[in-house]
Amino acid sequence: MSNRAAILTRHLAPEPAAATSGFKVAVLGAAGGIGQPLSLLLKSSSRVSQLNLYDVANVVGVAADLSHISSATRVTGFGKDSLAEALTGCDLVIIPAGVPRKPGMTRDDLFNINAGIVATLADGVAKNCPKAVVNIISNPVNSTVPIFAEVMKKHGVYDPRKILGVTQLDVVRSREFIGALKHVEPASISLPVIGGHAGATILPLLSRVSPANITFTDAELKALTPRIQSAGTEVVEAKAGGGSATLSMACLLYTSDAADEEDSVDLGGRRIIKKKKRRKREYSA
User: Fold this and answer.
1) Model confidence at 277: pLDDT above 60
2) Rounded to two decimals, what is the model's pTM?
3) Residues 75, 65: contact at Cβ < 8 Å?
4) Do the Cβ atoms of 259 and 276 come closer than 8 Å?
5) Does residue 207 sit in helix, strand or coil?
6) In which element (H, E) is residue 203 found?
7) Which residues are catalytically annotated?
8) Of 71 and 250, which is predicted with more confidence?
9) Helices (DSSP H) in the chain: which residue ranges?
10) Cβ-count burial of 140 within 10 angstroms (0-12 exposed, 13-18 middle, 19+ buried)?
11) First CA to last CA across the chain, in angstroms?
12) 267: β partners
């Protein structure tokens, strides 16, 4: 073949480009109120090369819809009997699966249903992607994180650094409420929140808010803490049976700037405060 012919051949039938590196992510509960908007955001992420969507119903349609969005992320839907396939080789697993709260319900009321769901999903993770980082959203997070951990221990693959209960929404809400109250840009506010993710276990440390020029009257302090603690209930009641906090949760899980300089998650039942600038972790009971 002449040199000119070789050049023409390469032009008409080029060598396949090297596969774009990225993370393989699974969303378990992808057809739900959090799962759908979260999957939409993940589809547009340049860091995700493969997005596996799993749910017990309607997930194939969600995957088909998202697959029409022009991005490098490939999307595949997996139904009820395909959990192992959805999880195989995943780097990150996000679990919003389970039933949402309804008016009059506490997060603890969800335990009997969601505990079993999380245990089943944990079994799948242990068998198919034991080294994946797992973000657990399913309520009650105070209970579902330890359940997940115990299943991983049973299989001999427990790594406390990789099992995270998502409680950052308490931090995001705190910043938003303080920003609105004090007419300050919420993104500039830093506030640690410790404890759990249910009612009175949510403890915003308002005395450690920064910038330091933000101060509160006694009346403001008396109102702020209960509002932060009951913010989830506020959304549930406002939706009048139509679901819980889904859009705000999906958004904060995706956006890197949603977390403050000080962030918080549950790890093995404990709330962690991660101070990003110092690149180390401090543990609080």
Assistant:
1) no
2) 0.76
3) no
4) yes
5) helix
6) strand 202-204
7) 197
8) 71
9) 3-12, 35-43, 59-66, 83-87, 111-128, 141-154, 169-182, 218-229, 231-238, 247-254
10) buried
11) 73
12) 270
Question: What DSSP element (H or E) covers 75?
Answer: strand 74-78
Count other C-beta atoms under 10 Å from residue 89's C-beta.
12
Is 80 in contact with 30 (CB distance < 8 Å)?
no
Q: Distance between CA atoms of 17 and 211, rounded to whole angstroms?
A: 49
Strand order from edge to edge, sheet including 23-28: 74-78, 48-54, 23-28, 92-95, 133-136, 163-166, 262-267, 270-275, 280-284
Give the pLDDT confidence of 51-102 residue by residue, as tens digits: 999 999 999 999 999 999 999 999 999 999 999 999 999 999 999 998 877 7
Q: What's the pLDDT at 278?
A: 34
Task: Give the separation between CA 42 and CA 27, rounded to whole angstroms.
Answer: 10
What's the DSSP call for residue 44? T
Q: What is the pLDDT confidence band of residue 242, given thresholds at 50, 70 and 90?
A: confident
Q: How far apart are CA 17 and CA 180, in angstroms?
A: 49
Of 246, 222, 220, nearest to 232 by C-alpha is 246
Token digits of residue 138:
């399913």
Reported as a pLDDT band with limits 50, 70 and 90, residue 253 is low
